[in-house]
């Protein structure tokens, strides 16, 4: 018995020493400096301890969890207390990317400033969004794949949308076609993960688009395994408990329309080869197609919205490969029933939500959210876009995205689902 206790003690001490080495030497993007914002974090009830079996002693990994929790918690408090005053807000960059007429028409950028004032109703609205999400995650009447699994059951490769900023204690789950380019820019500025002529970017809009979507730019949860090995899940759970977690969502059908317009109405070589060519061959009966997207567009060969919907509904699509992130369901990207999000923003209220979030993160004097990329894909367009889609297809499509509608409080589009 004594030898067994000594062995467990040495094992725990060895594990703790390994963690210290990891934190001190392996962290090259600032994860040794943990800052916690508690303004948004809600109290989390302690998890009930696992009941050991008759022959089981105290698991050494519980010692590791306890040590990590204390270590990171003390670091967060110390760094938060010693934080200096926020920097003066930089002026917005005046340069704008050059856009073709077609891109301007499809993306519909709006460069006018949108200054908003905080309203007491916004706090109540945010609380209601979180309540709806929590209630439906606990409601057995709503079922969808992966709902019942735990956070430990989520594979690492499904955690690649969770971007971590350890400097300010923020975790952002990005959803493509929901202002994610600009939110990624904000995360880059906050984390200081990208340099411009030797200095971190201070202005979000100054970060080139190609760098924004480069996966090497961001620290995401799926990178933790390579960095922390078997302790990666312990660190994830601690950060999920202590950091402020947010995401932005959008009406699911409008997001689909936006994804279609962006990826198939604009010349995109990657999406043409990987998606458009198979769609045109499988659903439009084309046997020979141009090698490049520019040639295809000149010949008038484009994927129709009808073909795109047919592709989404085809059971073979999911069997061959998971949905592309631009049309993958939010519940599959961000795991809202496994992660207790502190802030749920919506594209429909982007300006007020962005202002509220930056203020609550206490970084509103450090930066401001870039001018809105107001995609002109509006909810009022849904009837026009779906007019030529068979009713049965619309009903199937709703079932495919029903969880996103319900979890995030979007009304069921009855006008599209009935004759």
Automatic annotation (TrEMBL):
Annotated region (Disordered), positions in chain: 40-62, 75-125
Gene name tied to this protein: CHST12
Bias (Polar residues) ranges: 75-88
Compartment annotation: Golgi apparatus membrane
One function term, GO molecular function aspect: sulfotransferase activity
The protein, known as: Carbohydrate sulfotransferase
Residue spans of biased composition, Low complexity class: 89-100
Primary localization class, coarse: Golgi
Entry keywords, A to Z: Carbohydrate metabolism, Glycoprotein, Golgi apparatus, Membrane, Signal-anchor, Transferase, Transmembrane, Transmembrane helix
Top EC class of this enzyme: transferase
PANTHER family: CARBOHYDRATE SULFOTRANSFERASE (PTHR12137), CARBOHYDRATE SULFOTRANSFERASE 12 (PTHR12137:SF4)
Topology term for the membrane: Single-pass type II membrane protein
């Amino acid at each position: 018995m004594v030898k067994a206790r000594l062995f467990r003690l040495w094992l725990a001490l060895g594990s703790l020493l390994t963690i210290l080495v990891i934190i001190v030497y392996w962290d090259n993007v600032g994860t040794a400096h943990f800052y916690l914002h508690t303004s948004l974090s809600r109290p989390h009830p302690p998890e009930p301890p696992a009941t050991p079996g008759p022959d089981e002693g105290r698991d050494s990994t519980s010692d590791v969890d306890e040590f990590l929790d204390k270590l990171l918690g003390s670091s967060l408090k110390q760094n938060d207390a010693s934080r200096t005053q926020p920097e003066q807000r930089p002026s917005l960059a005046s340069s704008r990317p050059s856009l073709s007429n077609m891109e301007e028409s499809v993306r519909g950028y709006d460069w006018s400033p949108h200054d908003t004032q905080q309203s007491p109703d916004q706090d109540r609205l945010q609380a209601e969004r979180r309540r709806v999400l929590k209630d439906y995650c606990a409601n057995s009447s709503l079922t969808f794949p992966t709902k019942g699994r735990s956070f430990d059951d989520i594979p690492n490769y499904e955690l690649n949308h969770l971007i971590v900023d350890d400097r300010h204690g923020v975790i952002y789950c990005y959803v493509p076609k929901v202002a994610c380019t600009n939110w990624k820019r904000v995360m880059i500025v906050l984390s200081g993960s990208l340099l411009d002529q030797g200095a971190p970017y201070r202005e979000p809009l100054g970060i080139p688009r190609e760098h924004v979507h480069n996966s090497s730019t961001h620290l995401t949860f799926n990178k933790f395994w390579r960095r922390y090995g078997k302790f990666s899940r312990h660190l994830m759970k601690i950060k999920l408990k202590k950091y402020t977690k947010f995401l932005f969502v959008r009406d699911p059908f409008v997001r689909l329309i936006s994804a279609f317009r962006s990826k198939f109405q604009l010349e995109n070589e990657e999406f043409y080869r990987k998606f458009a060519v198979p769609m045109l061959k499988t659903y439009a009966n084309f046997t020979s197609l141009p090698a490049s997207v520019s040639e295809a567009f000149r010949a008038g060969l484009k994927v129709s919205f009808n073909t795109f919907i047919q592709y989404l509904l085809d059971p073979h699509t999911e069997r061959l490969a998971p949905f592309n992130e631009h049309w993958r369901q939010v519940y599959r990207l961000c795991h809202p029933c496994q992660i207790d999000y502190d802030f749920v923003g919506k594209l429909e209220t982007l300006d007020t939500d962005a202002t509220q979030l930056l203020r609550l993160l206490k970084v509103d004097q450090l930066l401001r959210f870039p001018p809105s990329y107001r995609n002109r894909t509006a909810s009022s367009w849904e009837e026009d876009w779906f007019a030529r889609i068979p009713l049965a297809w619309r009903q199937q499509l709703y079932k495919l995205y029903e969880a996103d509608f319900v979890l995030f409080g979007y009304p069921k589009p009855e006008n599209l689902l009935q004759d």
